[in-house]
Amino acid sequence: MARKLIGFDPETLRALELLSSDSGKTIQQLADEAFADLLTKHHCHTFVEALKQSVRPAPANENKPKKR
What pTM, to 2 d.p., does this model score? Predict the structure, then answer.
């Protein structure tokens, strides 16, 4: 797992700590949820999600004339 250091102002950090305590989630879990929501909002996908979306809904020969 890659790590990045993110800074928060004291008021935001305190709010995150309270939310973490109230929800029973770690700050890491809250951050994962928030970043997943942000990526979804901006239509960004993980590599695996992009592969799933790239699968064609029809066979590769969809333009082939039908047999009589």
Answer: 0.66
List of residues 6+ apart from 23 with CB closer than 8 A? 30
Do you know the residue count of the chain? 68
User: Buried b / exposed e across 43-67, counting CB within 10 Å, b at 16+?
Assistant: eeeeeeeeeeeeeeeeeeeeeeeee
The predicted-structure confidence for 27-44, as pLDDT tens digits, reads as follows 999 999 999 899 888 888
Burial class (CB in 10 A: 0-12, 13-18, 19+), 30: middle
Contact 61, 51 (CB under 8 A): no
How far is the C-alpha of 34 from the C-alpha of 32, rounded, in Å? 6
